[in-house]
Specification:
Radius of gyration: 53 Å
Helix content: 55-70%
Largest sheet: 2 strands, antiparallel
Organism: Ilyomonas limi
Distance between the termini: 92 Å
Number of helices: 15
Protein name: Tetratricopeptide repeat protein
Length: 313
């Protein structure tokens, strides 16, 4: 990209290469054209050369303008800046001497690793086996013996076994009694009452385990108890009872209300009158306007004008 970069620098600054430009020149260009991505890239390169302390902040800002971060990294970090490994097979043999200690040859095989990592791995010093064994023996001597748990007493073990045996015997006795009661024969003369009425219809609250308090009751509690007494008296004799316990007069009144509610009532509104006019029912529209004039005396003149218009048609 050197040729293309130089052409771009020549076009923007009039100078032949990026080395001859300054950070201030590129800052001015990016301020004038803030969305010019290539100018941001060249400014980042220049800041890396002259102002390394501001490089991280500018790099974050520049990364916003590029989708491919790896391409951006390749443009910023040139091949000259990378540490290459000399051996083509990436195998190095390094011999290090430190403090007159013989260190064996270290064969390190790395692929695509920098020379710094190789040097760090080469600086590792192997200790003699005798020193390692001595240190291990000292560490083993420092280990404290864990206290042993006291043995269980034989009497305690016997008590535990006896309690378990007694519990198992009690459970077996209870199960045996239940089995004998279930298998006991039923005599023919024994009366077995069969309840045909559910218990909750007799006393719902008693079926739920609710007990009535016999203490002095207040007015609200008396009303609640009256309701419960009414529930206790409700017993279904048949699925379709004829006597519902209601008043015949009240039933007639309810029936009359139901009959009237089923009959459609006339809708007397101005909108309904306009609909009748569109349907050609002028007589009915005039009747609606007359009713409206009686219901709204303040608009009598208005509805009278409407009636005259319809009569003139």
């Amino acid at each position: 990209m050197n040729a293309a970069e130089n052409n771009l620098v020549q076009s923007l600054t009039g100078k032949p290469s990026l080395q001859e430009t300054t950070v201030d020149e590129w800052r001015a260009i990016t301020l004038q054209y803030p969305y010019f991505s290539l100018a941001q890239l060249l400014l980042t390169k220049k800041i890396r050369q002259q102002q390394p302390g501001q490089f991280d902040a500018q790099l974050q800002h520049c990364a916003v303008f590029f989708q491919n971060i790896k391409w951006l990294q390749g443009q910023l970090y040139c091949k000259e800046d990378k540490l290459m490994i000399a051996d083509e097979t990436d195998k190095l043999a390094i011999t290090v001497k430190a403090n007159s200690i013989d260190i064996a040859d270290i064969a390190i095989v790395r692929k695509n690793k920098s020379e710094e990592e190789l040097l760090e791995n080469a600086n590792l010093i192997t200790l003699p086996a005798e020193d390692v064994l001595n240190d291990f023996a000292l560490q083993m001597n420092d280990v404290k013996d864990e206290p042993e748990l006291p043995p269980l007493d034989e009497e305690e073990l016997e008590n535990i076994d006896e309690n378990a045996a007694n519990a198992a015997a009690k459970i077996a006795d209870v199960l045996q009694q239940q089995v004998e009661a279930f298998k006991a024969p039923v005599q023919e003369e024994t009366d077995v009452p069969i309840s045909t009425e559910p218990y909750h219809t007799i006393d719902y609250f008693a079926s739920q385990g609710i007990k009535v308090d016999t203490q002095v009751l207040d007015a609200f509690t008396k009303k609640v108890h009256t309701f419960t007494d009414w529930l206790k008296q409700m017993k279904r004799i048949s699925n379709y009872p004829t006597d519902l316990g209601s008043d015949p007069d009240m039933e007639n009144y309810v029936q009359s209300i139901a009959d009237n509610s089923n009959q459609p009532e006339a809708v007397d509104t101005e909108a309904m009158a306009e609909v009748l006019v569109k349907q050609g029912k002028l007589d009915k529209a005039i009747e609606v306007y007359e009713k409206l004039s009686l219901l709204n005396p303040a608009k009598t003149a208005y509805f009278a004008a409407k009636i005259n218009q319809l009569k003139a048609l």
